[in-house]
Write a structure and sequence with these properties.
- The chain is built from ten helices and 16 strands.
- The longest helix is centred in the last third of the chain and has 16 residues, at 257-272.
- The strands form two sheets. Strands 1, 4, 5, 6, 7, 8, 9, 10, 11, 12, 13, 14, 15 and 16 form a 14-stranded mixed beta sheet that branches.
- The two termini are 33 Å apart.
- It is of the alpha+beta class.
Amino acid sequence: MNLMKHPNMHMNFNGEQMNRFHLEVCTDDGAWNHFLDKEKEHTMVTMAHNPSLGDVLAMTFDYSYNKYWIMDQDGPVGVFPVVQIGRKWVSMPHFSYGGPLLSKKLANPPLLQELLANTSFEIRSFTKHTKYVYDRKLSCVLRIFPSEEEQLLSLKSKLRQKIRKTDKLGLEVRHGHQELLDDFYGLYAKKMLDFGSPPIGKIFYKNLLDHYQNGEALITVLYDGKKLIAAGFSLSYLNFNEICWSATDHNYDRYNIHAFICWQILKKSIERGYDYFSFGRSTVNSNNHKFKKQWNPMELPIYYNYSEPIGKSIKELNFLT
């Protein structure tokens, strides 16, 4: 395990526990993956903790990225991927998760504000780490069953009927990589512009397809004849898969195309042997949240942990979605 100590990161904990925890840069992706593979049975490990994801973000957006071990006197007890943007630490920008993941054996974990003393940060996590928290987002995650039929039976009956009805349309389903990028990005960019939001640049998705490791970056598309009507982009890591971006042709909304492409990506997750399938984040009680509740998911709160008070508008601080 090749480690470099990060300067000025030894911390005091409760006075008597001097230097109990500190951060060290990890340069061994294999050791990082091995650590999380052992921990995934008792904690949710997402694609935001894939050690290659930060490398893709760095090459695309020119961020500074480090993978940190959380260390005590006996060695690594946790991992912490961090992107630094100016003087602010973010974990992880453009994604919903990324905060520190700690070993189940750790009885007295470090506090985030002590670990990152004198640092401005925005840390996204399933755990509330600070008193300055935004908590109006959640992630809907399904446990994956061994077979398609078992998975289908786990859904609400109305949703099952919609999926089966759409299946009878005979739509073409394709799963692929670089060869489907133009189709995915064209539909995704149009959707974002229709919503009045600028899309992330195409180079980001190209870099994911070319450089994402330790998991799969997969594009799924639906065609009605030669017409592209839906597209999704998913990322996996260890036993977790998430549909991170999707778009549909609104002219096909009456055919429940959004649910159908989610089902196709979920079926691929079953085939790949993953344990969890995530629909990504939603605002609590939004229409997007209501759509996802049809699937009978676990609803995991997402906490945006800040180093300082967040003020009146979360939009002012939550600067990277």
